């Protein structure tokens, strides 16, 4: 063999090996996880790989020679395919998401890339389509979306999704000029189920509540769980008339209330529950999502405080009250620093109408509202720790006054009664703070009388009794204010080291009108005598009341008949006038002056 012939043969052999190698590699590449389909220039399928067969469900005989059109899902319009082909013809490449149909009819999303294969003359000889099945990824994306927008326990929309829908509903309502409503639903005392029957049982109740709620509304309405035992129902598109909406929504709310109040049966347990429902209508106004939610929430709290198992519609009067309350609280925070608080003094007299002392009653000189009475602002102060600051200011001011009275012969024996809120009494340092104030002003403790109410009994009884003994040990007097209207357990009377019962003014004022009030007052006086307690009647306004009280041996009095609560200088003027009248002449003091 000639040398050149040998060289050619060797070269051909090398070429053949390279081609074979390339073919082997492309065979391996061809059988990847991605589906591959090769068509001729007329889009007839000529080859597919195993992944293609697995994804589509066909076997190769069924697809070879056919047009890929056979896998169309029918979900894309003609324009979609025209655009795809135009791009392929112009650029030789198309990629994107497409919905196709498997052999079993299932429609699935896939990510496809189609490439035109061209020969040396730039003519398309083949198309190669590579695609991956997106259904798994879409499913997990959907699952993640579900987790983000739905409550895992009840499968109801969560707060996030509810807010989205509510926003959309509000703009629909203003566009369509109609009304809808949201209902805030809170299970009454749900915590008790969890605490007594366990969280698993609580979960079953919540799932059942979700199902019952759904059964009360239309498919188009939204039932969502906002958290814990709080649900919300949104009823869209109810009517174009507000009154009509309100009436219809009222019926749905009642249906919900009644259905949620019917018994729950799980694990052999029968459980009765109830709900409080707050309703806020929307549409026809420019209210925001937040404001409307707040309204429904406020209405729900109204339903709760109305004794639960009830429905309340949001009412602007109620909202004004809440707003006024908030404004008052914020003003009250400044009141001490701005020296707007004052004490008024109301005379307390004995059976000869001789002044024994006074009750210190708080007044607030509001810069705009004028005089605000304690019945208005004390409950607000009691909702926060403000009452502690105010209570301390009262105690300090009262003791300062006692110290001043101690310097004068005529006033040195006066006692001063100070009202103590149950919340103030409950703080562990209360006794120490009283001792500190007494010491700071060098006050004789027996001149100070603390008026407690029966609500101190609601706190830890042992601690209450201990504290009262500690106060007695300081030498301070203790009175039970508003006696008779509180918790009516007389057994506490023998446990508490009280000095005085103060008959509530409502009974005193009923003495001459209402037989049972008269009987009650008489009973309280007897009770006090039996327990060796002093008794004082408050709210004495008329001579007839006074006569009755004296007749039944009540010996101390406070009320408008003797004097109203007065600013210090007026109180002192009244006091000196009475003392002068009593000591200066043979005149008999006429009450009511
Ligand atoms: P309270 O301790 O039972 O005070 C008696 C209330 O009855 C006072 O109202 C007094 O002005 C009023 N009153 C007295 N005599 C008569 C009468 O003959 N007829 C009528 N109709 N009313 C009479 P005020 O000053 O408005 O106080 C209301 C309540 O506010 C007090 O009831 C007390 O519970 C609370 N309070 C007042 N000052 C303080 C305080 O410094 N601290 C705390 N924690 N509460 C206070
Ligand atoms: Mg009082
Ligand atoms: Mg009272």
List the helices and strands and how they pair.
Layout: H1 3-30, E1 35-40, E2 45-48, H2 50-56, H3 60-63, H4 78-91, E3 93-101, E4 107-118, E5 124-133, H5 135-149, H6 159-176, E6 179-187, H7 190-197, H8 199-216, E7 222-227, E8 230-239, H9 242-260, E9 264-266, E10 269-271, E11 275-282, H10 289-305, E12 311-313, H11 316-335, E13 341-350, E14 355-366, E15 370-372, H12 374-382, H13 386-406, E16 415-419, H14 422-426, H15 430-440, E17 448-452, H16 461-474, E18 477-483, H17 491-495, E19 500-503, H18 505-510, H19 515-530, E20 534-538, H20 543-551, E21 556-558, E22 566-567, H21 568-584
Parallel strand pairs: 11-12, 14-16, 16-17, 17-18, 18-19, 19-20, 20-21
Antiparallel strand pairs: 1-2, 1-5, 3-4, 4-5, 6-8, 6-11, 7-8, 9-10, 13-14, 13-21, 13-22, 14-15
The structure holds ligand C2E and magnesium ion (MG) (2 copies).
Residues 481-482, 502, 504, 538 line the site of one magnesium ion.
